[in-house]
Description:
With about 270 residues, this protein is an alpha/beta fold. The chain contains 9 helices and 15 strands. The protein has helices at about 30-40, 55-65, 75-85, 100-110, 140-150, 175-185, 200-205, 220-230, 245-250, and strands at about 10-15, 20, 25, 40-45, 75, 95, 110-115, 125-130, 155, 165, 170, 190, 215-220, 235-240, 260. Mean pLDDT is about 95; it is low at about 1-5.
Amino acid sequence: MFQSESQPLVYIFDLDGVIYLGETPFSDSASTISALALAGRQIYYLTNNSGRSRSSYQDKLRGMDIPCELDQIFTSAYATALYLKSKGAAGKTAYVVGMSGIVTELAQVGINPITGTDLLPYTHIDYVVVGIDREFTYEKLRFAHAAITRGHAEYVATNLDATFPLEEGEIPGGGSIAASITTATGRQPFVVGKPQPYALQAILDAAGASPGQAVLVGDRLDTDIAAGNNLDVPTVLVLTGVTTRAMADQAPADWKPNRIIGTLSELLEE
């Protein structure tokens, strides 16, 4: 039975592998989120997937009968835009190795995102911002390499997820793209997404909550669980994504979740 008084005040959910796989929601996602909201809990979503804008994620969730407002959604692309804006990047130019999510979020904070390699000389690029890119090419790698190594561009990765889950199984993620640029340039990017603390701390700040008043629910040990542990936010691993119980049992201490559940609806149990 759901005992609301025993629950955290703020629930932060990963999306891929937790709320849905690809375009298919888990059968208990909408009912679980609704129950928590009715109990007065604040709900936020935190995904490392940079492919979509926040408004696109809002449409996707609402299409799954999960009501949400734009300010409840934090993506690695949005967090990257917030981070760069805080560093005075408004008015500067970013070469985006990525998809529309990054382009949209950067533009909305006043950064000029370009995706073509023939629009500006590489010496005019201030940032190379990398995420998932389903049209990644050698030409994009070449231009990013030039902007970073022969230009003055700062190298920023939205996330380093090697893969993410879909209905048919895992596919390469943004970290796979970043790895090729890191190999070519010999440079390490500044990483914004989980397990780094920036995006998760931004949610805590927005919610007005301390780490102990929140819980992070995710399916990946190296990103979701590690992010929560890095900020002392209690963590719940749900086994509907990329991690098995055996993997969790064998994980190092900083990847250990506080709780493991088989399905999302188990959050409502004592």
